[in-house]
Amino acid sequence: MFIIFGGLFFLMFGRLLSIQITGQAEGRQMAAMAEAKYARESILKAERGKIVDRNGELIASDTLSYRVIAILNEKATEKGAKKPRHITDFEKAADLLSRFIPMEKEQMIQIRDAAIKRNAETYQIEFGKAGRDISHETMLAIKEAADKEGVTGLQFIEDKKRFYPNGNFASYLIGFAMREEDENKKVSTVGKMGLEQTYNEELTGTDGKVDYQTDIWGFILPKSEKKIVAAKDGLTIQLTIDKTIQNFVEDAMNQVDKKYSPQKMLVIVANPKTGEIYAMSQRPSFHPSTREGLTENWLNDAVQNTIEPGSTMKIFTLAAAIEEKKWDPFAEYQSGQYTIYDKTIRDVNRTGWGRISFLEGFQRSSNVSMAYLLERMGDRTFIEYLRGFGFGEKVGIDLPNEVPGIILDINPSERLTTSYGQGSTVTPIQMIQAASAIANDGKMMKPYVIDKIVDPNTGKVVDDHKEEVRKSPISAETAKQVREVLASTVTSDAGTGRKFALSGYSVGGKTGTAEIPRKDGRGYLSGDGNYLYSFLGMAPIDDPQLLTYVLVQQPKLELGQYGSDPVAELFTSIMESSLKYMNILPENSQTSTTKSLSNHIGDDAESSIASLEQQGFSPILIGEGGKVKSQYPEEGTKLSEGSIVLLETEGDTTLPNFSGWSKKMALSFKMLSGLDIRLNGDGFVTEQSLSAGAVISKDDPVVLQLKSPEDQHTIIEQDEMEGEEEEEIIGG
């Protein structure tokens, strides 16, 4: 026995010595086996990058969501546990879930049965798309119902969901992203359309992880080190879009859609000085979160579809004639019809207006006047100008799948019809680029929608888009003359643009009525309303700050209504609201009461405040005083008496009374002060969460409630009506 036990001891000792020396047992590395047994890894989820407007206001971001898991296996419940951790009555659980997620009870049972058929020991199941993207409120409601009804075995795992807080907001520009499962069963958010798809790589973050070691029960081993690889969130895309102006566009389009039910609409608002796109929307539209309203058309019509522009093209025919010195506004021609070879074109009323001047011909949108202008300058010269304006080629905007359009140039009749916008095709974004040369004194600006791309992990700007001047075919003097003629189409009794006049602002522009090609390619649609109505306009006309292009296709018109009516309703509503929001004063007040703001940067705050008050302005100090670091508005801005001027200095900020401030001014205060100011609504400030005079830190949130003048007026009327009712009750 001694020999046997001694032999076993030496055998065991030799085995231990061998393992210690080689680190192997049965041909496998022991360290690797231990690592596999005790090592754990926790994933740190990265957030998909945000999309924000020019002022940093949220357009798209990740938000917390949940997915539901049904625990089937009895082994999940430990012996002696007071409450089961698995589902004890699946039909009851399925009945409960069917009330909260979009899946029928029977389908859930089928999923359960199929899983058990594959593996009788199935531990848990999920319910696909229906069981994902569950909101926090729904998750709490399911838990509450489960506790009340005695349903066990339902668990929730935190997840990410793409959040679009503004609903149907620039949806064809922004696009959408959705959760997808790859072949390895890994679920991630993927851009499917618009900017979400184009910049999917930039928006997609990189998950991090935490490596650590546990014992067999899952507790972290003492003195074991955690190895953390931080998650890297996706890049933030800041747009040139202004959320407030975009909302003006969306609201106006909703109203016109409700009133006229057109087949299509499109609006683009741009800054002609820089090429920045402030708003871009189309109808039909859809909600990016639910895709409700999304049709078979996935194209952004501003850049991916072409149109025949109609008479808005006459702006550029006129510009070419003026630049070539062939424009004589008071020379006369015979209106009505014009024949070239076998092609006869006619004015809109078929008979014309007799002998009229070229100026009146433009105001009346005479096609025949364009024919005579082509005679004067040469039709091939005209085509060269069109190409100089950028037609027939992509503008190179930072959006996907842009199309170039086609300028017909084979024979004289094609060049003739192109002069008044028929036959040749353009994109709406080309019209914006070309018109910027008219609005911006001959400087043609490349349109763009991405302001910058920022890495939120470091704060570094990785891509900064700057304004870009394009070579323009016209001079500043020509641009000024064109604007004067465009203004006359709105002010003249003969002008087709009279409906587009703005209250307090001079406007210039050109109407358009284009025929719509049939889908089979055989000619054009006919009949009342079967046209593409448009207006390309700018204001204030002496120094345009906004350029807006409006398209309305096939509106349903009642007796006495015209195709220009819905276009005018869109244009005037958007432009008047936007100009006021941008603090561009109406011209009747601008000439008499405005003063040019001087530069106060580097001056003493106390003396600057005294100087500004003496000039009739309302200075607001950001900080405690001392040297002025920055100011808003900038030097040279023309302001009316009583206008707010922000002066930034060092130190803590005392809250002002925000009542009556515009959203733009409130956002400027937020950026200069660095305070956590949150804005609800649009228009002007009516309430603030913290009183004026409070000194706060950058961690204290301040909520400002804004309302449009129309909303405030409605509230006042309701209050007055309620007051009258109370008086009647008291009097009765």
UniProtKB/TrEMBL annotation:
A Pfam short name: Transpeptidase
Location in the cell: Membrane
PROSITE patterns attached to this UniProt entry: PASTA
Principal location: membrane
Keyword Membrane: yes
Keywords: Membrane
InterPro entries referenced in this protein's UniProt entry, alphabetically: Beta-lactam/transpept, Beta-lactam/transpept-like, PASTA_dom, PBP_dimer, PBP_dimer_sf, PCN-bd_Tpept
Record SUPFAM superfamilies: beta-lactamase/transpeptidase-like, Penicillin binding protein dimerisation domain, Penicillin-binding protein 2x (pbp-2x), c-terminal domain
Positions of the PASTA domain: 591-651, 652-708
Similarity remark: Belongs to the transpeptidase family.
Designated name of the protein: Penicillin-binding protein
Species of origin: Sporosarcina koreensis
